[in-house]
Amino acid sequence: MIRAYKFLMRPTVSQTIALGEMLRDHCSLYNGALQERRDAWRHSSRTSIKYGDQSAQLKGIRAFDLERQGRWSFSSQQATLRRLDKAFAAFFRRIKAGDAPGYPRFRGVNWFDTVDFPKDGDGCRWDSTPHDPLTRVRFQGVGHVKVNQHRPVAGKVKTVSVKREGRKWFVVLTAEQDQPKPLPATGSVVGIDLGIANFLADSGGQFVPSPRHGRRAAAKLEAAQQALSRFPRRKAKDRTANHQRAVEKVAGLHGKVRRQRIDHAHKTALGLVREHDFIAHEDLKIRNMSRAPAPKPDPGKPGSFLPNGATSKAGLNRSISDAGWGVFLTILHAKAESAGREVIAVDPRNTSRRCPACGHTTKENRPTQDKFHCVSCGHSAHADTVGAVNVLRAGLVRREANPA
């Protein structure tokens, strides 16, 4: 299995400058490759340029621009071109699926924060000795950078990436390792229902309150964004010191909320994996759930629109984003795989409307957001608990139909 590790780097002043120049030059390569594809399609009878064509030009580009492109790793530049190729592949896939295309865009230097090295030892070298507090990683054109390795890396390092977050620099490793020893069996199974009022409800009647990290930080974010809005929009190199501090303040607050959300997801998922052998959850289409409602033209007044509930839907969308369901489910599946647990996603339709006692299904069974009362048999319970029970039953049925 493949596992990722993320460590804080502590570069010197000169190394920080070199790392920034590496991101800048890879960003320039990305934008140049994108421009070439655009020009070829527009001016050369709709000619498509592929990754292989652009990768073959790298040798000449490096020879022509030795001071910038020639100083960096060849394989990392190939990874940047693959990144652009993946963006175009996703663009064409969305067109075929009928979704919003989202044509690949040019990246500003402040929006290009990652450089990938596809193989350890090719342009980079992870140098870690067990029980040695001094760990370094070497990058071509930068040198040996100190790393705050807060935990050991198990397995063989496969890829290395450099990532910038604000003023901090991180190294991200992926390591190939043997399947870890599974946790002892508990004999417990559980279904979970994700929500807004409660982050999670399980089939045993337990609840995990919603932390609402984004809502708690909303006042500070609003003040910081208002302070930033007083400055005119400028490129990073033209910003004043006060402008740059305002930008970093907003970015820092968003980063804190993101870290809090990930930390909560890790702790919640770990608790579930340790306590249960089998976990069932709803197969949520989060992107569809958080879409803005379509406008409703007024047939009697051309150019006017009828109310479509966009304001209330925007509030719901913010709550869905703040809950971080997608991050949580990704972490849950990863932890379950490492622990030898089984996780199954089931169809969420009618899970909160079906009576677990008699099976009667109707929307009248749920008169309020948190109350369930069956109009057929009179069974009453918390609506989220009922949903979790139905999710567990559907998951067990699916497991029996598709044994591992």
Cα Rg: 26 Å
| Alpha carbon gap, first and last residue | 18 Å
Q: What is the helix fraction of residues, given as a range?
A: 40-55%
N-to-C series of helices and strands: EHHHHEEEEEEEEEHHHEHEEHHEEEH
**Arrangement of strands in the largest sheet:** 2-6-7-1-5-4-3
Give the domain tally.
Answer: 2
Number of helices: 11
Task: Looking at this protein, list some descriptive labels.
five-stranded mixed β-sheet, seven-stranded antiparallel β-sheet, single chain, 404 residues, alpha+beta, 16 strands, 11 helices, 20% strand
Give the topology, please.
Layout: E1 2-10, H1 13-43, H2 51-56, H3 58-64, H4 74-97, E2 114-117, E3 124-127, E4 135-139, E5 143-148, E6 156-165, E7 168-176, E8 189-194, E9 198-202, E10 207-209, H5 213-216, H6 218-229, H7 241-275, E11 278-282, H8 286-289, E12 296-297, E13 305-306, H9 310-323, H10 325-339, E14 342-346, E15 371-373, E16 380-382, H11 383-401
Parallel strand pairs: 8-11, 11-14
Antiparallel strand pairs: 1-5, 1-7, 2-6, 3-4, 4-5, 6-7, 8-9, 9-10, 12-13, 15-16
Helix pairs in contact: 1-4, 6-7, 7-10
Describe this structure in words.
The chain has 404 residues and is an alpha+beta fold. The protein folds into two domains: 175 residues, no CATH class; 213 residues, no CATH class. The protein has eleven helices and 16 strands. The strands form four sheets. Strands 2-6-7-1-5-4-3 form a seven-stranded antiparallel β-sheet. Strand 15 and strand 16 form a beta hairpin. The chain is globular. It starts with a strand and ends with a helix. The mean pLDDT is 91.
